[in-house]
Amino acid sequence: MQRTARRKATIGISSNSDIGIGPYGDSLPVPVLTSLAQIAVALRILPMPPNTVDYKHTLMLPRTSFPMRASLAKREPKLLKRWDDLGIYDRLRQKSGRPSFVLHDGPPYANGHLHIGHALNKVLKDMVVRSQQMLGMDSRFVPGWDCHGLPIEWRVEERYREQGIGKDEVPVLELRNECRQFAAKWIEIQREGFQRLGAIGNWQAPYLTMDFHAEAVIAAEFMKFVMNGSLYRGSKPVMWSTVEKTALAEAEVDYEDHVSASIWVRFPIDPEASRDFAASGMPQDAAVLIWTTTAWTIPSNRAICFSPKIDYALYEIRDVPEGNWARRGELLIIAEALVDSCMTAARVRDWRRVRRVTPAELDKLVCSHPFRGKVPAEEPPVNRWDYPVPMLPGEHVKDEAGTGFVHTAPSHGEDDFLIGRKHSLPMTHNVTEDGRFRSTLPIFGGLEIYTSSGQEGSANSVIIDNLICSGHLTARQKYKHSYPHSWRSKAPLIFRNTPQWFVSIDKVLDDGKGTLGDTIRERALEGVLRHVKWTPPTGMSRLHSMLEQRPDWVLSRQRAWGVPLACFVRKDADMGSGDYLLRDEAVNARIVRAFGNEGADAWYQDGSRERFLEGLYPPEEYEQIFDILDVWFDSGSTHAFALRDRADGTEDGIADLYLEGTDQHRGWFHSSILQACGTTGRPPYRGVLTHGFTLDGNGKKMSKSLGNVVAPQAVVEQHGADILRLWVAQSDYTSDLRIGPAILKTAIENYRRLRNAFRFILGNLHDLSTDQMVELDDLPELERWVLHRLHELDQKVRDAYVRYDFRAAYVAIFDFLNGDLSRFFFDIRKDRLYCELPTGIPHRATRTVLAILFNHIATWLAPILPFTADELWLHRNKGEDSSIHLVDFLAVDDRWRDNSVASKWKSIRRIRRAVNAEIERQRDMKAIGSSLEAAPLVYVADQEVREILRSVEFADICLTSQVIISDALPAEASDINPAPEVYVEFRPAVGEKCARCWKTLPDVGTHEHPAICERCDTVVSQL
RNA sequence: GGGUCGGUAGCUCAGUCGGUUAGAGCGCACGCCUGAUAAGCGUGAGGGCGGAGGUUCAAAUCCUCCUCGACCCA
């Protein structure tokens, strides 16, 4: 309806003198509708007159079975099946003479469904694998899974618990088998999910850390640390879960808010034990005030730390409420910056600063424990608190919270441990693995710190009660702070002193692998700096600074599901002595062989100690170690069993690329480089690519509670894997990636444009045979320009893929297809494609270029959109064995490169834009609709450019019926100052509209077919 | 609290060694076409570059501080 109204308006204007006669005077009235009947037809009031031929049938309109709607969710599984049947991955391996490229898969943990982060990671990997292959490499990808470890063991235990079975009642081999089954189940689910994303690889034979071979290699790799002397057994406070009854690795710890009872406790000065006390002038009854959030560590206190950088002072309490813990007249040493908060907490109404207390004074002081004298002297010393509590300087002490004094229990804190070691403080063993005080401890024996379900036990309150009784508590307050929790059980953790196995990363290794350095740390640091290419480059400093600071590697876990630290220790030897750890290649070989055949379960079989030692050492003199290895050791060893030992690994056991999220600087990149530097002397990778994390559409972390989680499965089912992949390609993976409905919409829209542009190409290629293609020399200049652009793009796209810059590749392709082709080339050439004689050179020339474009662009897209690219490919390349994924990026012909054509067409497009602008103005004024109604006059000041315009079919290029290139600036523009470089004057096209090509030309009506132009007349008569 | 990184139009991103009026695509608005049609084409409106200082003739680009977000660590 609207259309008719507009037509009316146009005619109305044409009858008006402002356009019809116009400023030029000599123009014909517009539009050229000369009879009522024509008007009626134009208005769609009357049908086409019976004597008018419908020339539509004489056109070569696009024809294709390539659907506009992708229906990716349905189509993709079919393509996957086809690729599987074809064995694409294996076929690619048969291409010989190619340099090898191996992206080594970082193994995801085999529990739970895939989330969007998994999908991002695997899609990026796939883009690398596919693009490297198409760049000419033999690009292999062996997917892997991380199978051992606490989360799986925990889930299996949970199942037992649901049946009312405690974990200690389950035989270890049965438990391990359950874990194995559990992992296997999730591997299947995840494998299917990854494959659905289009990831290509050796999915038939992935590597698993629980494969027997892998378990044997992991044990063998561990033995290298046994043999090179870097393994030692030490005692260390570690994060300990009283629920899981195990030490946790850093990666297994979550920090969450937790409310603790914080207490201020006075430690009376012991004048007897302090040095030079008499001369110090310090009052005998002064006390040092400490603050702690872990009351349960008080019985294990061995020192108090102060900072030499903090100002301290002695304060006298002058006024307190009745019955207050802090007493009137009391003398306390406190950091000056914290005295206000301390006094407030202690409800002190008035106090006085007596004098400054210097670090030198503090250094000489010794305090007594609040529980001194509580236990009868008959008890052994280890059960009494009568020991001196020295004051020690410590850099870790801050004056931001508390009192400026840190109560120090060497067995229950990292800093405490270091200070304790430095000053030879005794380690205490007061807390057992179930989170209770040892039963032999007076007063508190058997009290729970945290219960087996993670609740707070009675230990804290009993200790606080005792402090109140003995008059040592000054204040208490609830304190909310970030506190470590188990990532699995969410229970709060404690620091607990436990025997653990460590790898010393600063021990000089005499293993003949010292090219990069003598210690693991030196080698890793040197490797990071000089032997790894980082994408983006910032990854380097991140890993480097972590490696610089990290402490020794704690390898042992007191769990069941993993590879044991397969070694023996002498029962009668001291932990520090040289013969404590059994180092024997023959024993090791037995163990590795057994693991290879039976898996690490062999370690847990009855009689395994005898089996491995018999004939070599007296078994009864040795203790078998049943701790298992940190799972990071497993994954840190993947290079050994997945690269070094596999035929489809790499020759030197080194990967070309590791590709993971930035969290893996602490994780896999880290454990792998430590492991490899200890066993091979260098990093296991030549390149590392890191990507950011996935956030929701607003840049917030995804969480179930916020309901902003985007599941990859949902995207794939709704829109298709190619849409998800396009989202990856259009994002900058070096920082965090956002995903949400609006962002996916962008990907969908862009996908449609890509698809439709290809549909147009396919539609115009439908019956093109190779013999119709024309030679380069026969191509019109516009076609030559397109090939020039294609040549440029080829370099750009390849460079981008080499840099793993998929976004740059995608943007280049998309902009070319959109900006240069759809909007320019296609629009202009529709006339030739539809109207010219199919056997003629102009028609064939354009189609030749379309065919070339199709092949190149489709292959460029294949690493990003493997499904759509192959769907496209199969429309042009039928055949049972055909697939775009079996070809490389196509070579370009260097003759396509023509910089003179390029600069020429740059000018042409500039002038064309000016013409477009003028036509748009006329449209706004309702003077014309289609640009074919125009025949503008174009003046260009530069004569060279004028010549260029005359040398091409500029009217076609502007989509106008005719164009006049003028040497002179039209009179009405001559007063514009400064004189315009380009001036376009609108003129209506002269003549009648050709019923076939719709151009308005003067010769229409003078040919055999009266309704069409000369070109069309010629074409039609030859059809 | 510390380390690393990031914050440019509604969205996704460019922006070289500091140098005209900060760019592109998508989306949006308006218009055209109806022979790429649940398509295609054109035109346009949107930001002053997270904030505040500073260096400089000149800062989105360099420096300092702050803020927000992410990862890692405490």
Q: Overview of this structure, please?
A:
By secondary structure, the chain is an alpha/beta fold. 39% of the residues lie in helices and 15% in strands. The strands form ten sheets. Strands 12-10-11-8-7-16 form a six-stranded mixed beta sheet, sandwiched between helices. It has a five-stranded parallel beta sheet with strand order 2-1-24-25-18, with helices on both faces. Helix 15 (520-530) runs antiparallel to helix 16 and helix 22 packs across helix 23. The relative contact order is 0.11.
Itemize the secondary structure elements and their pairings.
Blueprint lengths: L1 H13 L2 H4 L15 H7 L29 H15 L1 H6 L6 E5 L11 H19 L3 E3 L3 E2 L4 H13 L9 H25 L10 E2 L3 H16 L3 E11 L4 E2 L5 E16 L8 H4 L6 E6 L10 E4 L5 E8 L11 E5 L3 H7 L4 E8 L1 H6 L1 E3 L19 E6 L11 E4 L5 H9 L36 H11 L3 E14 L7 E10 L16 H11 L2 E3 L3 H11 L3 E2 L1 E2 L10 E3 L14 H14 L9 H6 L8 E3 L3 E2 L1 H6 L1 H7 L12 E5 L6 H12 L7 E5 L2 E2 L16 H7 L2 H10 L6 E2 L2 H24 L16 H22 L3 H30 L5 H21 L4 H11 L22 H26 L12 E4 L2 H9 L2 H5 L5 E3 L15 E4 L6 E2 L6 E2 L12 H9 L1
Parallel strand pairs: 1-2, 1-24, 3-4, 8-11, 9-14, 18-25, 24-25, 26-27, 28-29
Antiparallel strand pairs: 5-6, 5-17, 7-8, 7-16, 9-15, 10-11, 10-12, 13-14, 17-19, 20-23, 21-22, 28-30, 31-32
Helix pairs in contact: 4-28, 7-8, 9-17, 9-20, 15-16, 15-21, 22-23, 23-24, 24-26, 24-27, 25-26, 25-27, 25-29, 26-27, 27-28
The structure holds one RNA strand of 74 nucleotides.
